[in-house]
User: Fold this.
Amino acid sequence: MFGEQQRFMLFLIAPAALLMLLFQVLPIMIGANASFRNWALYNPKKTWVGLEHYYAVLSDPAFLYVVLPNTFLFMILSVAGALVAGLALALLLNRPFRGQKLVQTILLVPLMVAPVVAAIMIRWIFNDQFGIVNVVLEAIGLEGQPWLVQRWSAFGIILLTDIWLWTPWFTLLLLAGLQSLPKEPFEAAAIDGTTTWRVFRYLTLPMLRSVIVVCVVIRAIDAFRTFDIVWTLTGGGPGRSTELFSLYAYVHAFLNLDLGRGSAAAIIGGLIILVIGVALYRLVDRIAKA
Amino acid sequence: MAAISLRKLNKHYGSLFHAVKDVDLEIADKEFVALVGPSGCGKSTTLRMIAGLEDITSGDIRIGDRIVNDLPPRDRDIAMVFQNYALYQHMSVYDNLAFGLRNKKTSEAEIKAAIDRAAGMLGLHELLARKPKQLSGGQQQRVALGRCIVRNPEVFLFDEPLSNLDAKLRAQMRIEIKRLHAAIPTTSVFVTHDQVEAMTLGDRVVIMRDGRVQQVGTPLQVYGKPANKFVAGFIGAPAMNFVTATVRSDGGATTVEAAGLKLSVGDAEARALGAYNGKSVIMGARPEHLALGEGASGLGFDARVEVVEQLGSEILLETRVGSHGITVARVPAETVIARGDQVRISAQPGRLHFFDPDTELPITG
Ligand SMILES: Nc1ncnc2c1ncn2[C@@H]1O[C@H](COP(=O)(O)OP(=O)(O)OP(=O)(O)O)[C@@H](O)[C@H]1O
Ligand SMILES: [Mg+2]
Assistant:
């Protein structure tokens, strides 16, 4: 059926394909199957219930009015924050100065820290009794806050942690982008007497646009699935007020042990990411061609 | 009014590399100077120091009556054309032309007038709405020229602006630049590695090698009286023939001899070569100053044809005399000649150059 060469190629990709099948395709199929069945782990009847779980998720006020808005807000603010901070740092690092290499290395540190570790660190920093933040605030005569048990301060801390973790990633990629830009237009602009702001606005930004868009697409899709730092920092609390979509699916599947409901939530999330992803890719394409 | 003056200009890259060495150059107001030399000789570096894009290590640069050593590029009132055009890719041609003026907050009406005038001069009117990507190389370079013109600067700087264009377009643009300079006389420095460009465009030509200026002069001066062997070989195409020859002077007649070659020189040359009797010198003869056939007496020699290059308008001959290759230009195109033929070649009297083999300086009386 196959020629020698084809057989050899199949042989080479077989291990990777097998892993993907076992650990990605198969679980997705099982999950999709579960989402249509009555599959509570404490009572797995596995009877077909059609779209009942989907209906339950989509009519759950917590999902509609807390989780989804949280997720989108988080995605937008986290990506925007890390992009702005990353771009600013990349611009700073793009001009030579003494100690540039050192700064560049230090900036990479957050990338090397496991998100869970970072989240635990931040959790202790903002702990309301022992945290350094409150200690400092009280030392200068201000009142300490229960940072992680108020909705918006908790949300803000989650955001800041995520931005801190991801800024170096943006910095690295945007710096690479900046360094690959041709020098001459900038020299022409310098001779033309262009202000720094106009150089940024009319040269750097448009020339860097395609790199920015690709970074944003990748990061936005990724941010939509954020789990670890939220789980570690607040566990979705106080109450469910900082719950994101992936926590919602996790809680239903593994805390409430309702695999059917959790899978339905996961698949809804997957579809949302798919739509966002396709839309963003269209955008990239348009911008790349412009 | 903007004369440019370079005094003892030096540029080091790092601690080891000395790219520009003690360059002294006076460029008059409205003069067009061409800076020419082989690749890596420091032309671009010199130009970029004038532009302020490169720090100077030592020396002075004066534009007009100001020392501009430490002025940023924008305060030098210059405009520059780059080899790869350096247009703002995502802006229309119109916006490219307007960009520098908008930096200065010029009114849109004035900008429009300036662009109209420049577009008229360069034939850009139909292209104003396009993006640079939609233009040919020649059109892009015209836009780059236009961008400089609209700003009406004191000085134009060109860094090999024509070298990305094909030969025909290059010749066209050369004429266009010349016309432009006649229409709006502005002090200009034009860097090129193409000596034809340098000779045709420059009021004066500056020849550089290894970071040093070799000669500054009008095209006729650098062609007719090269300051050393390097300039003699660099200026002129095809390049000058060089032959190492020995001077023999017995009483009245002076000759220079090499294998297969014995030429008698004129009185003036004989006087100059007086001190070299019995020693060897480098003799230079331009291909266009050699001709087929028996010419003036004592200036002929025999050669064997190795390559015949038929150009249609003339023939270029590569010949061999003893161990030397000798190029002969301007052989009439109709001449019947083939590889392997034995020919008689004669030099034009008074057109031979002699250089000291050690210093490579010309030997003059
Ligand atoms: N940024 C730099 N760092 C180190 N060396 C440099 C730098 N720029 C140029 N050089 C060196 O300085 C010398 C002169 O360079 P320059 O660009 O002035 O040459 P050029 O005469 O313009 O040559 P070309 O005709 O190839 O453009 C070259 O040997 C080059 O390698
Ligand atoms: Mg150069």
Remarks:
- Chain B is about 25% helix and 35% strand.
- Chain B has a mean pLDDT of 91.
- The pocket of magnesium ion (ligand 2) is lined by residues B 43-44, 159-160 (CB under 6 Å).
